Amino acid sequence: MIKHTLWDNINKLQWATNLRDNEFAEVCELKKESFIKCKENLDDLPLDVVINISEKFNVTIESLCFKNVDSTVAADYYLGKCELLPQKYSWAKHSRHRTIINLLDYIEKSIGWHNKIMLLRYFQIHEGYFSDPDGKINLYFIHDLCKYFDKKEFPKSFFFGMGANSFQSNAENDLGKTLASFRTPQEVYMAVAEEFSKRFDENYTYEIENIHGNEIYFREHLKKEVNEELQNFQGKGTTSVAYTKAGVLSTFPCYIGAEPANVHITHCEHSGDKMTRYRIEVPEYEKCLN
Q1: What is the pLDDT of residues 6-23, one digit of tens each?
Q2: CB atoms within 10 A of CB 162
Q3: What is the pLDDT of residues 57-112, one digit of tens each?
Q4: What region, left, alpha or beta, does residue 33 occupy, with left being phi > 0 and alpha being psi -120 to 50 degrees?
């Protein structure tokens, strides 16, 4: 099974790059005769050859052996073009890169630069693709990213931490400075729901359901038109994304100098609910404005 998947992927890569056998043999650092023999017999390839292919085409060994790689993106990478996304993430793009940049920053801090690069290679995305914070990608990517760590049994605190890292990422930029201009945590959350959520993604409608003193009920709805564009995405993601968003929500009081909020997920669309709802306990705080 592994051999068949590996050779299916190699054949697709050879076809996508339009390389003849002798040329692809050079990519593998094999003699032409050895490559042709291995290809015809579906023979095992030495590990160093598989590593060679994975590095030159920006795919992981795991992907080569167990998944169907996006050969078009892999071939473009080999030919020096790094700006393409895999087809899965390249349509219905309503999520801002700034969110992904923050998550990748936390991932690098937590598990190291090399593992972050290998993670991106698993998804066949070059790190440079996210250089523009206002660029866009679709909703599938953040869910696939979280599912990747779900499978490796990372705790919910890891996902919460990814979201909470947004304060370090945004404190000194225009968004952070704007949020710092409010007096109370309640004002910050109202502004986030009404104005600033579009800076992160345009997939959801964010609303303040109600405010009772220091308790805020905040909810999000996947927009109907986005759900249709993504072919009925609602309910197909992972609850770990809600924990990531809870981490983001916890940081908003920090922009005005207050302690983080306590955030509880009361409903989640990826657990069968019609919406995702958060109960947010904010600190008693009022900033003095000069």
Answers
A1: 999 999 999 999 999 999
A2: 30
A3: 999 999 999 888 999 999 999 998 877 899 999 999 999 998 999 999 999 999 99
A4: alpha
| CA distance linking residue 260 with residue 251, whole number of Å | 5
pLDDT of residue 82: 78
How far apart are alpha carbons 260 and 281 in whole angstroms? Answer: 9
CA distances to 150, 245, 249 from 160, rounded to whole Å, are: 13, 7, 10
**φ and ψ of 281, to 5 deg:** -100, 110
Per-position b or e across 128-143, b if 16+ CB within 10 A of its CB: ebbeebeebbbbbbbb
- Name the band, by pLDDT with cuts 50, 70 and 90, for residue 174: confident
Domains and their CATH numbers in the chain: 2-78 (1.10.260), 87-163 (no CATH), 164-281 (3.90.1520.10)
The angle at the Cα of 210, spanning 206 to 211, to the nearest 5 degrees, equals 115
Q: How far apart (Å, rounded) are the C-alpha atoms in residues 108 and 1?
A: 33
Q: In terms of C-beta distances under 8 Å and separation of at least 24 residues, what long-range contacts does 223-231 make, across chains too?
A: 226/92, 226/94, 226/139, 226/202, 229/91, 229/92, 230/92, 230/138, 230/139, 230/140
CB 44 within 8 A of CB 3: yes
Task: Give the whole-angstrom CA distance, residue 183 versus residue 289.
Answer: 7
The pLDDT of residue 195 is: 76
215-222 β-sheet, strand order: 204-212, 215-222, 276-281, 262-267
What phi and psi values does residue 97 have, to the nearest 5 degrees? -60, -25
Alpha carbon separation from 189 to 137, 197, 202, 214 (Å, rounded): 25, 10, 17, 12
